[in-house]
Amino acid sequence: MVLGTAGAGGGMMAYRTYVDCFSVGLDELPRKVQRDGGAIIEILRKTKRFSVFEATANETIAKTMDAIGGRLTTDPNSQYPWIDIIAIDGIPLEDVGHA
End-to-end CA distance of the chain, in Å? Predict the structure, then answer.
């Protein structure tokens, strides 16, 4: 996104603003779905990662993530705030090449 602002000489100076999102959508799901460990596992099987922020966004999703945490094998080299999942229930996931 390029935005403009008045410069010291009355001219316009361009600058860029980058907005990053640290979520795969777990924190935006209805609470009923957030309580369903099986549904969360299926989402994580597709996204292959989640952020620390969304996993702790509210008590409901935090409890579910705690409950299913033992089923997830995560990459110790994940870059904060992301947690990359390399296997679920011991079954490896394909690498999706997150940047």
Answer: 20
- State the pTM of this model: 0.73
- Residue 78 has which token pair? 């994940």
H or E element in which residue 25 lies:
none
pLDDT of residue 2: 46
Domain extent listing, the chain = 22-92
CA 27 to centroid of chain Cα atoms: 9
Mean pLDDT of 76-92: 96
| Alpha helical stretches, state H, 1-99 | 31-34, 37-47, 52-55, 59-68
Q: What letter represents residue 93's amino acid? A: L
